[in-house]
Amino acid sequence: MIVPVQYNPQDYGTDFKNIIQDPYTVCMFAENLECLIHSIEGKVVKPGGGTACVRGEPNASPIPTGFREGGFTSLQQKVNFKDDNFIVMDLINHCFEGLRTKIRANRNTFRKVVYSADADGRWSCGIFTVGDEVLDYITKKIEELNNDKEFLDWFVQTSDIRKMDNFDSFFSRAP
Q1: Total domain count, the chain
Q2: Residues 65/125, Cβ–Cβ less than 8 Å
Q3: Closest C-alpha to 27, from 102, 79, 139
Q4: Residue 28 — φ and ψ, nearest 5°?
Q5: Half-sphere exposure of 115 (CA within 13 A, CB side)
Q6: Can you tell me the distance from the alpha carbon of 93 to that of 105, in angstroms, rounded to the nearest whole number?
Q7: Which domain holds residue 100?
């Protein structure tokens, strides 16, 4: 299941720097096109600001929302990088397929996916302005996955105490 997280600087549990420490949670984060392409090419890309602080972590999943200098303005916006041309909606769709692949490939590992949201559950970006059409579309894609039974079945369905950190060492310790 995918759940919204509304960032509150006084709440440790809403900071992606802390959430990413839970290996059973995937953090969807707002990514810029340049870093996304470099990551796909296998280049090391440093963590960024905002939700991109999780960039490079194995349980992080990028959703492109703009360039380093600013957000995408529309779904049909044509963008280019290194002589490649992309349409924003296609980039977003492909990254959602990447998220599906991550969850499916790690079936019964993850408990949830989180994303940064406003008070209404809409995808939010704090570093730069992204067009409403783009934010609404990303939110719609999240809602579609939350209504996709096959996708939801790939998550851990019940808690398994054996998956807790230190389970084995707790039960194997000497008296």
Answers
A1: 1
A2: yes
A3: 102
A4: -80, 135
A5: 29
A6: 18
A7: 2-172
pLDDT in tens, 63-111: 999 998 899 999 999 998 888 899 999 999 999 999 999 999 998 899 9
The CA distances from residue 115 to 42, 77, 110, 156, 164, in Å, are 24, 23, 14, 19, 23
Q: Do 15 and 114 contact (CB within 8 A), yes or no?
A: no
HEC assignment per residue over the chain: CEEEECCCCCCHHHCHHHHCCCCCEEEEEEEEHHHHHHHHCCCCCCCCCHHHHHCCCCCEEEEEEEECCEECCCCCCEEEECCEEEEHHHHHHHHHHHHHHHHHHCCCCCCEEEEEECCCCCECCCCCCCCHHHHHHHHHHHHHHHCCHHHHHCCCCCCCHHHCCCHHHHHHCCC
Token reading at 80: 């280019």
C-beta of residue 56 within 8 angstroms of C-beta of residue 90: no
Q: What is the number of residues in the chain? A: 175
- Residue 158 predicted with pLDDT over 60: no
Residue 7 identity: Y
